[in-house]
Amino acid sequence: MAYTFKQTLLPASKYPIKAPYTMTPQFVTVHNTANDASAANEIKYMTTNDNQVSYHVAVDDIEVIQAIPFNRNAWHCGDGQGKGNRQSIGIEICYSKSGGARYAVAEENAVQYIAKLLKEYGWGIDRVKKHQDWNGKYCPHRILSEGRWNNFLKRIEQAMKPVVTIKPKEEPQVTNTLTSTAKQDLRDLLKETHKRGIMKVDHSDRVDCMSDGEALGLLISVVKRTL
Prior knowledge:
The protein is of the alpha/beta class. The protein contains nine helices and six strands; from the N terminus they run βαβαββαβαβααααα. It has helices at about 15-20, 40-50, 85, 100-120, 130-135, 140-145, 150-160, 180-195, 210-225, and strands at about 5, 25-30, 55-60, 65, 90-95, 130. The protein has a six-stranded mixed beta sheet. A hairpin with a 3-residue loop joins β3 and β4. α4 (about 100-120) packs across α7. It starts with a strand and ends with a helix.
């Protein structure tokens, strides 16, 4: 699953309303938008209105868009000057009202993006919170109503694990130490034995790619049949 990451940053002139404090993030807080707008529309609406409501990132089925730098707070947890608003990165997952395929992809994009953030900050899964943890609001509503919060966290943990790649088994190298003269002699012998009916198959054209063991085996077979 792949998403496009981009930044559509809040104008600094809006910091007094939307992101008034510097922040050293300690948590990631997960939200559902409770509507069916895209990430781009969510970000545009949030950055252009004058409401004291804000968040750092919106995620849909195509994009992850960051609007507020992670060194600034955002008003997304309803806990006033608490740790949610002052110490957590707010992430909104789009299309949660209707759910369906678009929401499923958006949620998986959020899983992958949150896993990336945790790895970048060196955090564990305990740093991932739901909006409900800060002020009791029933959010992220779709994940909670479907009873999938613990599963959501497990998916993030799984996404944090390194990808194990299995190297294809290497084919053994064929060793052929016969000199060019020896190869020609063996080639002539195989042609002659085939011509005389001693060998049913003409192996002379395979001499260059034979291993030493194969060449010796054929020679022994010829000798046995001519005794």
